[in-house]
Amino acid sequence: MISSDPPVSLPELAPGRRVGRLAGALLDRLEEVLIASLIAAATALVFVAVVHRYGTSASIDLAKWLEAHGITLFSPLLRGLFAWLAARDLSWAQELCIYMFIWMAKFGAAYGVRTGIHVGVDVLVLRLEPKRARKVILFGLLCGAVFTATIANFGLHFVQGVWSSGTRSNDLEAPMWIVYLAIPLGSALMCFRFLQVAWHFWRRGELPRHDQAHVDGVEQEEAPVTLSTEAAAASSKPRGRVLGWFLLLLPFALLGLGLLFKHGVVPAPGGARTLLVFALLVSLMLTGMPISIALGLTVLSFMFLLTEVPLDSVAMKLFTGIENFEIMAIPFFILAGNFLTHGGVARRMISFATALVGHWHGGLGLSAVVACALFAAVSGSSPATVVAIGSVLLPAMVKAGYPRRFGAGVVTTSGALGILIPPSIAMVLYAVSTNTSVGKLFIAGIVPGMLLATMLGLMTWYRARRGDYPRMAREPWNRKLRAGRDSIWGLLLIVIVIGGIYTGLFTPTEAAAVSAVYAFIVAVFVYRDLRLSEVPRVLLASANTSAMLLYIITNAVLFSFLMTSEQIPQAMAGWMVERGFGAVGFLLLVNLILLAAGNVMEPSSIILIMAPILFPVAMKLGIDPIHFGILITVNMEVGLCHPPVGLNLYVASGIARMGITELTIAVWPWLVTMLVFLVLVTYVPEISLVLPRLLGM
C-alpha cells in the first residue's frame, strides 16, 4: 500500500483531510476484499462444478453396485443424492466464473499499480541520476494515467451501447452491460492509482515496490547491490542528461514521424509502418513504464495515426481478450503454488530429496536440484520455486561448509525448472497466445524437464566432487520411506494435474482449480502449516500476481490484433521463405531474439509479445507447434537466470545476501549447461515430442 503523509492522529487532522483519508482507506480495503473474494469464489465454483459433474454419475453407479451385491442400506441415500444433484443445473457456472475473473482482472490491475507489481523495462532508467530518472518515471506514470483514462472513456461509451441494445448473456441471462461495466470502472480506478502514485512520487520520490522474496515469506535485511545501481554510480552527469532527454523525446519523435506519414508529408517506404510499430513499442518500454501500458499506448497511437480501424473497437478487445476459460488456469495455478509455498510442502520435499541423494558428492546441492524439480511439478512458477527451496537449503548449505556461490548458483538455475516441468504458467501463456493445446504442452514438458534436471544435477555433482564439498551420511531405507510418506500429499498434486488432464477427467482449467482447492486443504488441514487467518493474504497475493499477468495479456491481445491487421507475421514469413531461411536458420534466429529479449524483459511479456509474431512463421516452415512452445519455454528459463532483469537472480540475491554481479558469476557453470540443453531441445525435437506421441496425443 502506498504510504502518504507522516502518521498523524485523526483528531489533529482537518475535517476535510480526515474524511479524505477515511475514504481512501475504505477504497483500499474494498479493492482488496473484492479481488480476493472473486478469485476465491471463482476457484470454489469451478471445483463445485467438477464435483457436481462426477458426483452425479458416481452416486447412482455406487447405488446400483451396492444393490447388485445385496447391500441396500445406503442405496436410498445415494439415490436421493443422485436425484438432488441431477436436479441442479450448473451450466451457468463457467460463464459466471469468466465474468468474475474479468472483474478480478480489471480491479486487480488497479491494485497492482498501488503495490508496484506491474513489470517494466527499467534498465536504462536505473542508470540515470535520481533527478533525471524522476522525470522519466513521472512520464511513464502519467502515460499510464492517460491510457487508462482513454480506455475508461471508450469502455463507458461501449457500455452505453450495450445497455441500449438490451443484450443478455447466454447462460445466466444477465444484462451484459453489468459485465462490461468492469472495463470503465476498473480503468478509471487504475487511472486514479497511477495519478496517486505519481503524486506521491513527485512529493516524496518514493514508488511502491513489489518484492517477490518478501511476498513469499523471505525477509531481506538490505537491498542487494545490482548491476544497474553499480552502473548508475559510475555514470557521468552529461551522459545521464543526454540519456534522460533521449528517453523522453524519442516516443514523441516517432509519433511525429507517424503524423508525417499519415498526411503524406514524408513518403512511407516499404516496411516503414512495421518498423514504426516496433520502434514506438521499444521507445515506450525503455522509459520504464509498465509493459502492459506500453503495449496499449502503441496500439492506440498506431491505430490513430496510420489506420482507419475505429478506436471504439479497443474496448471490445479489452474484454474479449481474456474472455477465455483456458486463461483462468493461470490464477488457479498461481493460487495453488502460493498455498503450497506457504504450507510447508517445500520443506517436506526438501527432506525427501535430501534422504534420496544427500549422501552423494555435493549432497545438499543435489538435494536442491531434486527438490526444485519436485516443487516445480506442483507450483508452475520459477521465482516461487527459488524462494521455497532456497530459503531452506541455502542457509543449510552455508552452515554445512559449502561456498555461498555454489549454493546460490544451484538454487538460482534449478529454480528455473518451475516453468518447464508442468504445470507451467509460461506454457499456459504460450497456449493462449497461439491456440495450442495446454494438455499437450504439459505432457511434452515432462521429458525435457527431467533431462534438464539431470544435466543440472550432473554439473552440481561434478563441481562438488572437484571441490571436495561435504557429503551427508546415507539415510537408512526406513527414513527414506518416512520422508516420502511425509511429502506424499504434495506429490499427489502432480497426479491430479497431469493424470486428470491426460485421462480427460479435467480440462487444464478445471485441473488448476482442483489443484488450488487441494493445495488449500493440504496446507491448512493436513500439514496445518498455514492458518486460516493467513488465507486471505494468500488469496490477495495470488490475485495481485494474476491481475498483473492478465493485464499484460489483455494489451498483448490488442497488440496481436494490430499485428494481424497489418499482416506483419505473414510478411515476416514470406520474407524468410524468399531468402531461403529454413527451419534450422529460423530456430537459431528465434533463440537469438528471445535470449536478447530476456536481457530486458521478463518471460510473460516476451511470450505474449513474441509468440503471436513468431508462431505463424514457424508453422509455415513446418515446425511442430508443441516443439516450438517448449523451445520458447526453455529460452524463458535461461532469461530468468541472467542479468540485468533475470527474476531468479533478484529473488536468489535476497536469500543469499549476494549482489547481482557476484551471483551472475556464481551461476555461469549451470547457465552454460542450460544453453547446451537449449541447443539440444532446439535441434532434437523428439526430446519434446516423444512422450505426446507415445501417449497418442
From TrEMBL:
Q: How does it sit in the membrane?
A: Multi-pass membrane protein
GO molecular function annotations of the record: transmembrane transporter activity
Where do the Tripartite ATP-independent periplasmic transporters DctQ component domain residues begin and end? 86-203
- TRAP C4-dicarboxylate transport system permease DctM subunit domain location is 278-687
The lineage's top-level taxon is Bacteria
List localization entries.
Answer: Cell inner membrane
Family matches, as InterPro entries = DctM (IPR010656), DctQ (IPR055348), TRAP_DctM (IPR004681)
Give TM segment ranges. 33-54, 66-86, 98-124, 136-156, 176-195, 242-261, 273-306, 366-394, 406-429, 441-462, 483-505, 511-527, 539-561, 581-598, 605-623, 629-651, 663-684
User: What's in the keyword line of the UniProt record?
Assistant: Cell inner membrane, Cell membrane, Membrane, Transmembrane, Transmembrane helix, Transport
Q: List the Pfam families.
A: DctM, DctQ
**GO CC terms in record:** plasma membrane
| Biological role | Part of the tripartite ATP-independent periplasmic (TRAP) transport system.
Name of the featured protein: TRAP transporter large permease subunit
- Species source reads Ramlibacter agri
